[in-house]
Design a protein that fits this description.
- The complex is a heterodimer of chains A (540) and B (299).
- In chain A, 28% of the residues lie in helices and 21% in strands.
- With 540 residues, chain A is of the alpha+beta class.
- Chain A is elongated, with a radius of gyration of 29 Å.
- The termini of chain A are far apart.
- Chain B is of the alpha/beta class and 299 residues long.
- Chain B has one domain (9-298): Luciferase-like domain (TIM Barrel), CATH 3.20.20.
- Chain B is 43% helix and 18% strand.
- Chain B has nine helices and 13 strands.
- An eight-stranded parallel β-barrel of chain B has the order 1-2-3-5-8-9-10-13, surrounded by six helices. Chain B has a two-stranded antiparallel ribbon with strand order 6-7. In chain B, strands 11-12 form a two-stranded parallel ribbon.
- In chain B, strand 9 (191-192), helix 7 (203-218) and strand 10 form a beta-alpha-beta unit.
- In chain B, helix 5 runs parallel beside helix 6.
- The relative contact order of chain B is 0.15.
- Classes of the chains: A alpha+beta (540), B alpha/beta (299).
- Chain A binds chain B through residues 421-423, and chain B through 17, 19-20, 23.
Amino acid sequence: MSGAPDLAGRVADGWSVALTGLAPDARRAGLAAVDDGARTAGRDPREVHRLATIGGPVSADTLEALAGEGFGVLVLATADPDEVRAFAGLVPEVRARVAAARAQAGVRVGTVRSAAVRARRRPGIDYDAIPASLADRAVEPGDAQYGGVRSNYLRGGSPGLVLRPRTTAEVVDALAYVRGQDVPLGVRSGGHGVSGRSTNDGGIVIDLGALNSIEVLDEATRRVRIGPGARWGEVARALHPHGWAITSGDYGGVGVGGLATAGGIGFMAREHGLTIDHVRAVEMVLADGSVVHADETRHPDLFWGVRGAGSALGIVTAFEFEADEVGLLGFAQLTLDASDTAGLLQAYGEVVEAAPRDVTAFLILGPPRRGQPAVARIMATVDSDDPDTIIDRLQPLADIGPLLDQQVVLTPYPGIIALPDPGPHQGQGEPATRSGLVEHITPEFAQAAERFLRSGATYFFQFRSVGGAVADVPPEATAYASRSANFSAVASAAAGAAWTRRGTRWPGTSAGSTGASRPTAVPAGCSTRTRPRRCGGCAR
Amino acid sequence: MTDYGHDLRFGSFITPANAAPQQVVAVTQAAEEAGLDLATFQDHPYQPRFLDTWTLLSYVAARTERIHLSGNVLNLPLRPPAVLARAAASLDLLSGGRFELGLGAGGFWDAIAAMGGRRLSPGQAVDALSEAIDVIRGVWDADNREPLRVHGTYYQVDGAKRGPAPAHPVGIWLGAYKPRMLRLIGRKADGWLPTLAYLDSLRDIADGNAVIDEAAAGAGRDPRAIRRQLNVGGQFRTASSDRLLAGPPEQWAEQLAALALEYGVADFMLASDDPQALAVFGEQVAPAVRELVAAERAR
């Protein structure tokens, strides 16, 4: 028998047979042998496709009959283009007839995953009920693509199912399905979020990576429409030719959706505000599956909430932003001796608060290494293309401590927002991160921060400047209320660090303090990103 | 110090990383747009982070129009020569005569053996490569009515039908550093393709040329039948330096012209995945080298 049907049944994904010269009985015996081989190997016979190569001329009746026997792939052997055209001309009718016959017989159409993959399915998920629109692109444990979608940037994950919708309608389908599944749900745009909610263990992830379009709606008002799955590095590169940018965290690998529903403290925050302050409208899918458009006049309450607490309200499928005109920027990387950590931090606070709005600075502290002083790294942007202005603005920052190294460049915005190397996220483990907003870096705060750093409890301790334009927006205008803070602090540690437990306060703050200085655990919607080398996309 | 009088060609040496497959294609297209003559790719079939080089060559052949393509160099131990010969001829036919066959004897034997390949000593590998060239040229010799028979120690072909012939005379280029391989080039190959970074000094080029020339003469061949090629790396900078290929395009041009005129190198492959560097190489360096070499040759 051609094609060793029993072997195909046991180990292959398809049995391919040439029908020319093969008696119908032999053909049917082959199909039966495929089934037997599959069952012998503990497989579902539906795992094995049946491919028939036929010589022409053929009729729709012949093809329909072969499909009825189980041949899902029908190949015409010919080198004659006219025969190919005639064959292709039969296809619509054959498809229609087969579909009708299957509907009548109640045959479920789709690809059956292998027994090996099915064995790795997680409880609580009805895999057979995945909507047809999402089934082809769904990924489950054991699938070849699973390794590329299970983790996010920072963490390892083991979701039981990853759905990858391409359209708003498919997001609706995904939510309708997920509502019936009693497992955790994570929503992922770029997969960079520090909260860890873009993956999970045994739950479902809706990955919005395919909703990644970037489209200019109106040149005059700098209105752009961007999908949640686009990444900010791509946005920076798409807007740059127009002379525009949207301030957006500090790393190009951060997804639009997470940042633009949470906050978005970027390198132009003091001049241009938060990323959410540039959102003018959203299209989102609510938990009940309804698709709504929200802006200042339509669903204003929803529009209020989506800017700061968006992940608690639904899945945004498109954002409309107003971009800023942004030219060349001065970008500095300064390395300072932080032996006097508290003094340096306090001076940093004073310099940043006194600086004009065209300066936005991020300071990162790492613990002292063996024999080496603690070191502070400052990344600062000056919105000016004039070298003298840039130096004027940077000098006070360079003077807050002994300067060990410096680099200053004049660059367009995409030069600051680096794109990651291609390839899937490779996050491992479960690092812990907490963030909070700080009104002023007081002497008490600075001393507590120094003690905290020296305790070795954190390997990454960052202070981003906010204030400026961020504080222009009234606290009640968006769900990001802490507008009066001047700094966003983020600390990261290995999993399980004691200080990350609920109830621990930021150093130097008290539970009774008011407003922005109030200590917070990472709030819902925060996509604060931390990584020792390169930190991205902190929300708040 | 020999100038073999070959026309100069400039190429790219592109990493076939599979993390962003279309990026490799885009870099290849950038090489073509930069006016380069060749796009070449390393071949490590045991390396899971690389695209299969043969598949990549076929794909980029369909996505380019003018540039010539080659492995740099293909891993013979994991690519049976009779099949390789027909594949090479087929790609040359499909691409309109744009394929060249860079070949290597193999070097990473643990990895080759792990892929099911045969582990050979370096000396055996040179002999195997020699036999493979006989097989490949035999397959391409489509006019020969006699069935192909090669009874080698490593490769046996016993009565295979010949053909197809490639669309143009496909050059067989060998990556080589040691005398045995260099002598093989002199006897049987069309090009010598070493990597500059693997040479101790430029003197290695002159010494290698001498070995190749002597072996060619011994086999009754004209040494000019063998192109001298070089994979090069470097940096484009605004400031000149006294180092090789670290400076502005004019410095590169002078140094490459010297390599052409004094060491006979005619094909320069720039190891880079940066479209901007390839553009500088193709649009600024290449014409300047050609001009300098033409002027010197005319004297």
